[in-house]
């Protein structure tokens, strides 16, 4: 097996179980590993420290294990079984009211580069590293076995998540089965998942608990669900007894999906209307009829350089909501940009609140749910931030 030798002293972060080896930490490589191959990582004094997937780029090795063990069928089986046990322990799997959850959350499940979302009988597998792409069939075999009787179809969806330069010829498609039944359930509500063309793996599984909280605050309120995508927050608000729900997204496809999903749960319900429109335009032209507003925009910053603009984006967006929300209104506001810290986000929202001059209280500080766990040794895995605010 190819071996990566670290520069002297560069094993410190690995000793603290951080799962990445940066290219700058490497002294030399023995052998000529291909991208995606498994390599052993040794310290300058030739002590084993980790084993993982090799890739060209600033993260050169994504650690699969800190134990010198073979990365074989039993390894994948073991890791997926642990992930599945955890999802059952927290009640998102094996739950008659919920068959939608994240089974594997990359570093959070000690499987860097791998995401698996389960939607009823279909699992969507997404590789974010070349290694996980190369090992996709091993992963799929282990998954089919660990989830026998639950998952019958495995859809591989990595066209847009792998490094373009690697030229892997990856295509989206079923690795196992091929069901067209794409209705899944979250907390007793149904929705269509577009795993063929939808964003991410087809649905934003990470808002489950925040949607449930929103439901509790929806009674008799006029709700604006801005950046609705598949309408998740909208149908929860309707179940919570909202007076009216308006869903907005700039994508016409998202609006179709939202209408379809609302119809699936509340056929013919006149309380809901969806608009395909730009968020800023809509916020400018809308009146002050809303007393519950959700702002869940796409990641404004994907890289560190874009941070300043992103914060300005959050500030502007939230300022509009503070300006228009009814007295006594509740604002659910989110950021899913990994490079925006909790503090950054809170400062942006704070500035927007101050600009409006209104009295604002923080009711809840939200984050990602337990099926998107954060590896304690990899704090970068914390990405979803939300605030629930009471606006006087
Ligand atoms: N809240 C959603 C997820 C939102 S994802 C959920 O719970 O599932 C972000 C959405 O913002 C995408 O659907 C995207 O189409 C939409 N979007 C991006 N830019 C936009 C803009 N300028 N105005 C309105 N919607 C926008």
Fraction in beta strands = 25-35%
* CATH T-level fold name of the largest domain: Rossmann fold
The secondary-structure element order is EHEEEEEHEEEHHEEEEHEHEHEHEHEHEE
Largest sheet: 7 strands, mixed
Helix percentage: 25-40%
**Low-confidence spans: pLDDT under 50, at least 5 residues?**
none
CATH superfamily of the largest domain: Vaccinia Virus protein VP39
Top-tier CATH class of the largest domain: Alpha Beta
Quick one: overall form?
globular
Strand order of the largest sheet: 16-15-14-17-18-20-19
Q: Descriptors for this entry?
A:
single chain, 392 residues, alpha/beta, Archaeosine Trna-guanine Transglycosylase, Chain: A, domain 4, Transcription Regulator spoIIAA, Rossmann fold, 3 domains, seven-stranded mixed beta sheet, six-stranded mixed beta sheet, 10 helices, 27% strand, binds S-adenosyl-L-homocysteine
Structural description of this entry:
The protein has 392 residues and is of the alpha/beta class. The chain folds into three domains: 3-65, Archaeosine Trna-guanine Transglycosylase, Chain: A, domain 4 (Roll); 73-187, RNA methyltransferase domain (HRMD) like (Transcription Regulator spoIIAA); 204-391, Vaccinia Virus protein VP39 (Rossmann fold), CATH 3.40.50.150. It contains ten helices and 20 strands. The strands form four sheets. The chain has a seven-stranded mixed β-sheet, sandwiched between helices. The longest helix is centred in the C-terminal third of the chain and has 18 residues, at 307-324. The chain binds S-adenosyl-L-homocysteine (SAH). S-adenosyl-L-homocysteine (SAH) binds at residues 204, 207, 227-230, 232-233, 249-251, 254, 278-279, 296-298.
């Amino acid at each position: 097996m190819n071996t990566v030798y670290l520069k002297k002293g560069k094993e410190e972060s690995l000793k603290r179980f951080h799962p990445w080896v940066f290219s700058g930490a490497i002294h030399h490589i023995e052998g000529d590993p291909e991208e995606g191959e498994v390599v052993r990582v040794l310290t300058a004094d030739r002590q084993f420290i980790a084993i993982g997937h090799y890739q060209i780029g600033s993260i050169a090795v994504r650690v699969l294990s800190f134990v010198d063990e073979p990365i074989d069928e039993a390894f994948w089986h073991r890791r997926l079984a642990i992930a599945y046990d955890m999802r059952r322990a927290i009640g998102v799997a094996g739950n008659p009211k919920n068959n939608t959850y994240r089974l594997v959350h990359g570093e959070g499940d000690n499987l860097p580069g791998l995401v698996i979302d389960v939607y009823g009988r279909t699992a969507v597998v997404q590789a974010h590293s070349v290694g996980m792409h190369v090992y996709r069939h091993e992963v799929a075999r282990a998954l089919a076995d660990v989830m026998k009787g639950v998952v019958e179809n495995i859809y591989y969806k990595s066209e847009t998540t792998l490094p373009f330069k690697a030229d892997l010829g990856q295509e989206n498609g079923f690795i196992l089965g091929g069901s067209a039944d794409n209705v899944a359930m979250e907390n007793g509500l149904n929705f269509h998942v577009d795993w063929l063309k939808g964003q991410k793996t087809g649905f934003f599984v990470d808002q489950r608990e925040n949607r449930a909280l929103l439901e509790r605050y929806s009674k008799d309120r006029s709700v604006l669900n801005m950046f609705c995508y598949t309408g998740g927050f909208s149908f929860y608000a309707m179940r919570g007894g909202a007076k009216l729900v308006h869903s907005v997204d700039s994508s016409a496809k998202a609006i179709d999906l939202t209408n379809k999903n609302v119809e699936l749960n509340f056929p013919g319900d006149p309380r809901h209307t969806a608009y395909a429109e730009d968020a800023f335009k809509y916020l400018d032209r809308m009146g002050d009829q809303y007393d519950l507003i959700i702002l869940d925009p796409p990641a404004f910053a994907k890289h560190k350089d874009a941070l300043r603009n992103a914060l300005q984006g959050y500030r502007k967006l939230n300022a509009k909501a503070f300006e228009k929300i009814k007295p006594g209104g509740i604002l659910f506001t989110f950021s899913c940009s990994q490079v925006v810290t909790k503090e950054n986000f809170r400062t942006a929202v704070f500035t927007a609140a101050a600009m409006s001059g209104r009295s604002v209280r923080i009711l809840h500080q939200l984050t990602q749910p337990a099926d998107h766990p954060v590896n304690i040794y990899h704090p970068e895995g914390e990405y979803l931030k939300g605030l629930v605010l009471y606006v006087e």
